[in-house]
Amino acid sequence: MRVFFDQRQDAHAPARELHNGEWMPYSEKPSRTRSILDRLGSPAAVSDHGLAPVLAVHERAYVGFLQSAHARWLAAGRAGDAIGYTFPVVGRRPLPLDRIDAQLGAFSYDAGTPVAAGTWEGAYWSAQTALSALDAVAGGDRQAFALCRPPGHHAGRDYMGGYCYLNNAAIAARAARPLGYERVAILDVDYHHGNGTQDIFLDDGETFFCSIHADPATDYPFYWGHADETGTGDGDGATLNLPLPRGTAGETYLAVLDGAMEAIARHRPDLLVVSFGADTHASDPICAFDLDRDDFRAMAQRIAGAAVPVLIVMEGGYAIGDLGLNVSAFLSGFSA
Ligand code: OKP
Ligand code: ZN
To answer: A single Pfam family, by name (predicted)?
Structure first.
């Protein structure tokens, strides 16, 4: 399977995040991709698809904010990474507020997602990586792996959050339509619920979104991913959330995945986009499932059983020492 990655993604390197009330080193580090590439070998080249496929998912004002936020932070006399401190939960509306602090709040839902000097460059090339891997599938590859970093599944049309800025999986899923894929399914198997992807496709009946994740009653992102969120309007029934308790191990997880694959098959997709997080592994430092590498391989075998082309998009995974082995165990299940 071809692996897509562009060195410019690593321009994104925030220094720290607010975690349980303390400043901690940022978990979503450039060394994550190095650990993976050490195992997978040289990546295929990424090509530039421009901004149009990004703007097919994200609001122009939000994209403009991401492009300029760090420069405007510096212009306001600040140092380091840009980060918000006030969030318009109640009465969010499109007020034309110029101040960088107001915009950092309006375009994000958490304080764990700083905008660093290279964030736009990294996020832009991460999205281009997903689009390039999509081209490989459209060109006949049965599967392709987009080594996206920063990840994307927490980012919505006009918001960032959870280490995510541009929603790589959503951008690829939307770009698939003009390539002739009419019915797309997105399966999100990151430990965390893919709230951004869910929001983007919530009222879209052609794009089925299914997520298996830690119960948001106990885990981030808390406010999305509950089983009663099933889609709205035309998308009613095209969202399926399968929350699982902390400590879930392989046997239970794989049985739930079987159910997810049956639901996906009922949608009759012609393309499956997998948001893959390796943070379901038992060794992940910020997560609490109990999967091992054999489970990762078994997951991929079940997904491959859908007999549709698969675009795999990297999301989370923070056990950096094990990350390359964990990701390659997952990918190996597609050829087994
Ligand atoms: C991103 B992905 C604050 C604690 C919350 C956010 C977790 C984001 C996970 N530092 N951390 O889904 O792996
Ligand atoms: Zn995650």
So the answer is: Hist_deacetyl
Find the 190 Cα to ligand 2 centroid distance in Å.
5
CA–CA distances in Å: residue 150 to residues 14, 120, 159, 222, 280: 11, 10, 15, 21, 18
What pTM was estimated for this model as a whole? 0.98
ipTM reported for the complex surpasses 0.90? yes
Q: Is residue 97 part of a domain?
A: no
Q: Is residue 277 within 6 Å of ligand 1 at its C-beta?
A: yes
Which protein residue's CA is at the shortest distance from atom 3 of ligand 1? 19
- Token pair, residue 174, equals 């939307």
Ranges of residues in the chain whose predicted pLDDT is under 50: none
107: in domain: no
Alpha carbon of 220 to ligand 1 centroid (Å): 7
Residue 265's domain is classified under what CATH number? Answer: 3.40.800.20
Range of the domain at 177: 2-9+28-48+118-332
Contact 213, 190 (CB under 8 A): yes
The question of whether 193 is a catalytic residue gets the answer no
Place of tokens 């122009």: 60
Q: Give me the residues near ligand 2 (ion), CB cutoff below 5 Å.
A: 190-192, 277, 279, 316
In a domain, 71, yes or no: no
**Count of domains forming the chain:** 1
